[in-house]
Write a structure and sequence with these properties.
This protein is α/β, with parallel strands linked by helices and 379 residues long. The longest helix has 20 residues. It starts with a strand and ends with a strand. The protein is built from 10 helices and 17 strands. It has 2 domains: 130 residues, Rossmann fold (3-Layer(aba) Sandwich), CATH 3.40.50; 245 residues, Dihydrodipicolinate Reductase, domain 2, CATH 3.30.360.10. The protein binds nicotinamide-adenine-dinucleotide. Nicotinamide-adenine-dinucleotide binds next to helix 1.
């Protein structure tokens, strides 16, 4: 049967531009789907970089102004892979034009923007998804399955860490084309929005909503040169590190920690959940494994087991290789896209949607507020 074409318009040719372009190229090779994304147009500001990018990844055309992309009648779905300060305006305009909208995380600069976007999306009634791709790591999806099957029982503790080390040097500039993550005017926040948003999305998915938080943040290097003009130094306004305590609505306790100053940690994203009947542990740097402790095992074999999440019984893995052959980072975006397209097919919309991501954004806002007030803050 001929596929239903879904004409995509992607914004951004950076890190996520590549990850998403790869997903559009691969998804129908590995998943049997009614829909097929067509790489109609890619948009970014610098034509000299954009043209070769489009050619390399198979985009049919280019635009240098996202407004023009949204105006085009031949685009069904806008995919936002540009920095955080662009998300609101693009998403709202795309929704008002009746386009489906996919958006990178964090949803917005803050929850007020996130609410505006969510309301625009819901008013327009357009299909939408936010790319919290870690939900599509098979081992994390398996953790979700085990929680839903009741295998760890009532959750008491959730412990998350997200650690990197790339901003330790005071010479790293802020702002500009590639270092916008260090500029609060573009990123909204530092590790809270960039890294902990992932941890919070995963935590809410696995353990439920968060009621209140108590946080501390630090900016270790107070001033940095700007990337566009290294002779100009500006105050750094992002959080370099953040640690917070949280209470879930269900009474479970949580700790979250993130920094870009953890020497040797490149992208260590871990969580441990301790429940009445068992525990789970995951580390993105060993992404094909899930550790599971089952208290119901006979006592003489009690111990943590390491599940190699590559069997066809495991989430997503029946679309990939034979048992024992691991998949990687890029596959999480392909899995996410497949879920989005399947949602269009079945009429059961994919999650996380804008409303879900707004929930995560509200936790981020409460965390940043608590760091300022030095008090517990309700989400
Ligand atoms: N899901 C994930 O794991 C993940 C990973 C990395 C980044 N992200 C998110 O993806 C987004 C992009 O991050 P990145 O790492 O790809 O950034 P990047 O700096 O690598 O790329 C950003 C792209 O946006 C373009 N751009 C900037 N302003 C624009 C504008 N006004 N109009 C059109 N294009 C514009 C730039 O030219 C560039 O192509 C951010 O929101 C980030 O938080 C998510």
């Amino acid at each position: 049967m001929p596929k239903k074409k879904l004409n995509m318009g992607l914004i951004g040719y950076g890190f996520m531009g590549r990850a998403h372009s790869n997903a559009y190229n691969k998804v129908n090779k590995f998943f049997d789907l009614e829909y097929e994304p067509v790489l109609k147009a890619v948009c970014a500001r610098k034509e000299a970089i954009l043209k070769p990018f489009a050619e390399r990844w198979g985009w049919e055309s280019t635009e240098t102004d996202w407004r023009r992309l949204i105006e085009r009648d031949d685009i069904d779905c806008i995919d936002i892979g540009s920095p955080n300060n662009t998300h609101r305006d693009i998403a709202v305009a795309a929704a008002e034009a009746g386009k489906m909208v996919l958006c990178e995380k964090p949803l917005a600069m803050n929850a007020a923007e996130g609410l505006e976007m969510t309301e625009a999306i819901e008013k327009a009634g357009v299909a939408n998804m936010v790319w919290f791709n870690y939900r599509r790591v098979p081992a994390i999806a398996l953790a979700k399955q085990l929680v839903d099957e009741g295998r760890i029982g009532r959750v008491f503790h959730y412990r998350a860490k997200y650690l990197q080390d790339w901003t330790i040097s005071a010479d790293v500039p802020q702002g500009g084309e590639t270092l916008w993550r260090l500029d609060a005017d573009v990123a909204g926040s530092g590790v809270t929005g960039d890294l902990l948003a992932h941890s919070i999305d995963t935590a809410i998915w696995l353990a439920g909503g968060i009621d209140k938080v108590s946080a501390m943040t630090e900016t270790f290097i107070k001033e940095r040169p700007t990337q566009d003009d290294p002779s100009v130094t500006r105050e750094v306004k992002i959080d370099d590190a953040c640690a917070f305590l949280a209470r879930f609505n269900n009474g479970a306790l949580a700790t979250f920690e993130s920094t870009r100053y953890a020497r040797g940690r490149k992208n260590q994203n871990t969580f441990e959940i301790n429940g009445e009947k068992g525990s789970l542990f995951f580390d993105l740097e060993d992404a094909h494994q899930l550790q599971y402790f089952n208290h119901d095992d006979d006592e003489h074999v009690h111990g943590w087991r390491t599940i190699l999440v590559t069997d066809s019984e495991h989430p997503y893995m029946d679309h990939w290789w034979v048992p024992g052959c691991v998949i990687g980072y890029e596959h999480t975006f392909i899995n996410a896209l497949a879920d989005f397209l399947q949602g269009l097919e079945t009429g059961t919309p994919v999650r996380p949607n804008f409303r879900d991501a707004l929930g995560t954004q509200r936790v981020c806002d409460a965390v940043l507020k608590s760091a300022r007030t030095e008090a517990w803050e309700k989400v």
